[in-house]
Each structure stands twice: as structure tokens, then as C-alpha cells.
């Protein structure tokens, strides 16, 4: 086991934000950092009237963080908010020898770690290069360090393109995208072959239990783990519904707050499995303190990807560990939703029946016209 990289987290409370919200975001950032392989020694929460354009946070706080980094012998500081290229450079100047990342950087590091197929590896590489371009202009020292260094946020694109300039990186991005398009073409041809079979897209916030639910419904063995972005590559599984018939379930990458648009764009084809679906299963962790925000984020992403007429089923998972108050709240506000436990196999038969009924409706609608 390599030694874990020690990290300090920074969250910012602006006048428009509640402190408790930022605390939840920081708790999530901690999980992200841990999934990426860091050991979080402490978290800073700073109130600001407005973001400081040079360093995002105030100079005083930068000094405080510098002292804390030294005290904890931490070499990494992670901001929950996006940093511009110049902010990264200014911060690294004030924090010599310290690696500065933002939430997107950490998400990309996890993606790089979890990508398995050629397709997702390519997608991650495109996303990493896109992330790099604006951080590049004066970043020669930064880059040469990155090229030589090892650790979180460092693995991924090969070193050769890093030591050259934006133009070369942009060309590299084009090349990778062309390769991706080829793979996606093959995926589309596969999708065409599946036409006529009822398809269910399983979507939702990361760690909601999408893979567990897929496994439970289809008796399969998709990778499940209590970490963020366990699933990066989509998998398709068959659910037999009697008479030798089956429907297809596709389990995909989860969503998370503050996901940058270019990342979403790159992963659109993976999520595309959901946009071709006949029905969407929106899986929500019933126990998450911030489940309302999870619902909202999922909703926003789906609006862009999925036709409004595709039926959606709202499923609250992990119901067996939700408090009675939470269950009451969910039943009152979402009377149409299903409360299930994929892990304990509660409510799953009803979910299956709901899918079968939708399939039959879909089938007869197609036959009638
Ligand atoms: N208590 C409880 N835990 C569950 C349930 N379903 C899943 N989990 C746990 O939640 C964690 C995440 O499960 P996954 O199935 O990997 O979640 P996912 O939505 O596929 O997550 P990503 O692929 O990382 O986005 C695992 O530790 C599961 O064991 C459930 O019904 N109840
Ligand atoms: Mg999963």
C-alpha cells in the first residue's frame, strides 16, 4: 500500500450560502478526496463577502492554511470551488511545494483511477486535457513538476504532451475525440441491434445504490462499493420477465454537484445509454441529508439529456436505514415514488412489476401503431 497523501480541504461560505450547505459540500469533498487516495487532516471553512480574484480566499487565510499544511506535513490542498488557472498559479506561488487542486481536479483523479474500458479511459484523458488547457499559460514549472510527479491528479495524460503548448494539447484533444467517435459509432450500432427491446436507464447521484439495485433486479454482479464513482463504465444487464422475454437495464456513472459542463459533455455518450431508454429509474439515497439537492442536480442533468416524454420512476433506496420521519416526509411529498432497499431486498418485487407493466404498455403501444 502506498502511503496516503495528506490533504487539507477548503470550503467557502459566501453571503448567499448557508453554512450547513457548505459543510455538507465539504463532507462530500472529504469522501471524494479519500476515494482519490488522500488522507484529510483538516478542513477550513472561510466566510467571504466576495471571492478574491487572485487567490479565491483572502491572503490571511492563505497564511493560516500554509501553517496548517506545515503542521500536518500535508502536501495537498483541495478547494471545493473551481479555481481559475491564475488562481492555481497564485496559490502555488504562496504555498511553495504544495499541490493545489479543486473539486473538478479531484473528480478527474478518481475518474482516471476508475476508468476500465478503452472508451472511458479516452473520455477521462479528453477531460483531463481540457481541464489543463486554461491552467497552462505560465505553468511551465507547474507542468514539469506534474510530469515528473506521482500521486493524486498526476496520473493520466502522458507526459510528452504536457511539456509542450496549448496548441499541441488542443490537437491531441481532437485526435482523442476522433478515436472516441469511432468507439461511439460501434456503440450506436450495438444500440440499434437492441431496438425493440424495452430499455431502462438507471440514473442518480453517485453512491445512491444504482449498481446494487441493478444486481438485485438482474441477479448479476456489477461492481458495488461504498465510494463515490465506483461505476464509470456503463454496463447492460438482462432482467427476465417471463415467457422467455427480457428487458435491459443499463447502469451508468453517477452524478455529483458542481460537475463542470465539459465533463458532462465528455461523458454524454455513457449517459447516452439513458437517453435511448424507454424508461428512467431515478435512484435516490433516502438517507442522504441533502437528498433534495441530489434530486435537483439529477433533474437538471436529465433535462439536458432525456426527452421529457420518457417515463421516469422515482425510487428511494436504502429505505431500511432511513428514519421514520424521513420516510414520512418522502411518502407525503412523493406519493408516486417507490421506497425500496436494494441491499435488503425490500420493495424490489413491486419495482420489478412496475417495470414489467411499463414494458407491456410500451409493447402494445408499438403494436397498435
Ligand atoms: N443501507 C443500504 N445500503 C445500500 C443499499 N443499496 C446500496 N447500498 C450501499 O451503498 C453503497 C453504494 O452502492 P452502489 O450500488 O455502488 O452505488 P452506485 O449508485 O452504483 O454508486 P456509484 O457507481 O459510485 O455512483 C454500497 O456500500 C452499497 O452497499 C440499501 O438498500 N441499503
Ligand atoms: Mg455504481
TrEMBL record:
Ordered alphabetically, the record's keywords are:
Coiled coil, Cytoplasm, GTP-binding, Magnesium, Metal-binding, Nucleotide-binding
Q: Would you identify the family this protein belongs to, as annotated?
A: Belongs to the TRAFAC class OBG-HflX-like GTPase superfamily. HflX GTPase family.
Which residue range or ranges hold the Hflx-type G domain? 198-364
Tell me the protein's name: GTPase HflX
Name the coiled-coil region(s). Answer: 159-193
Protein role: GTPase that associates with the 50S ribosomal subunit and may have a role during protein synthesis or ribosome biogenesis.
The primary site where this protein sits is cytoplasm
Give the quaternary structure. Answer: Monomer. Associates with the 50S ribosomal subunit.
Amino acid at each position: 500500500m502506498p502511503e496516503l497523501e495528506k490533504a487539507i480541504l477548503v470550503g467557502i461560505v459566501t453571503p448567499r450560502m448557508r453554512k450547513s450547505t457548505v459543510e455538507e459540500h465539504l463532507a462530500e469533498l472529504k469522501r471524494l478526496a479519500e476515494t482519490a487516495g488522500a488522507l484529510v487532516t483538516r478542513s477550513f471553512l472561510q466566510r467571504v463577502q466576495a471571492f478574491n480574484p487572485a487567490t479565491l480566499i483572502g491572503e490571511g487565510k492563505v497564511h493560516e492554511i500554509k501553517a496548517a499544511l506545515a503542521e500536518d506535513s500535508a502536501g495537498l490542498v483541495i478547494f471545493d470551488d473551481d479555481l481559475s488557472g491564475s488562481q492555481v498559479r497564485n496559490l502555488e506561488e504562496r504555498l511553495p511545494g504544495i499541490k493545489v487542486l479543486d473539486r473538478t481536479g479531484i473528480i478527474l483523479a478518481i475518474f482516471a483511477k476508475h476508468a476500465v474500458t478503452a472508451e472511458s479511459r479516452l473520455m477521462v484523458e479528453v477531460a483531463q486535457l481540457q481541464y489543463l488547457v486554461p491552467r497552462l499559460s505560465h505553468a511551465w514549472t507547474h507542468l514539469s513538476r506534474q510530469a515528473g510527479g506521482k500521486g493524486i491528479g498526476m496520473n493520466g495524460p502522458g507526459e510528452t504532451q504536457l511539456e509542450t503548448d496549448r496548441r499541441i494539447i488542443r490537437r491531441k484533444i481532437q485526435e482523442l475525440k476522433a478515436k472516441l467517435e469511432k468507439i461511439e459509432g460501434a456503440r450506436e450500432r450495438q444500440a440499434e441491434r437492441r431496438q425493440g427491446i424495452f430499455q431502462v436507464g438507471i440514473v442518480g447521484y453517485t453512491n445512491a445504490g444504482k449498481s446494487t439495485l441493478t444486481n438485485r433486479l438482474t441477479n448479476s454482479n456489477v461492481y458495488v462499493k461504498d465510494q463515490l464513482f465506483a461505476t464509470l463504465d456503463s454496463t447492460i444487464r438482462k432482467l427476465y420477465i417471463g415467457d422467455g422475454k427480457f428487458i435491459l437495464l443499463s447502469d451508468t456513472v453517477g452524478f455529483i454537484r458542481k460537475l463542470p459542463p465539459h465533463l458532462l459533455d465528455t461523458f454524454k455518450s455513457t449517459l447516452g445509454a439513458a437517453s435511448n431508454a424507454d424508461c428512467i429509474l431515478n435512484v435516490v439515497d433516502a438517507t442522504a441529508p441533502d437528498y433534495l439537492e441530489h434530486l435537483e442536480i439529477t433533474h437538471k442533468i436529465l433535462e439536458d439529456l432525456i426527452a421529457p416524454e420518457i417515463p421516469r420512476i422515482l425510487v428511494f433506496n436504502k429505505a431500511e436505514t432511513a428514519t421514520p420521519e424521513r420516510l414520512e416526509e418522502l411518502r407525503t411529498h412523493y406519493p408516486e415514488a417507490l421506497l425500496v432497499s436494494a441491499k435488503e431486498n425490500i420493495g424490489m418485487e413491486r419495482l420489478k412489476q412496475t417495470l414489467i407493466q411499463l414494458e407491456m404498455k410500451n409493447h402494445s403501444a408499438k403494436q397498435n401503431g
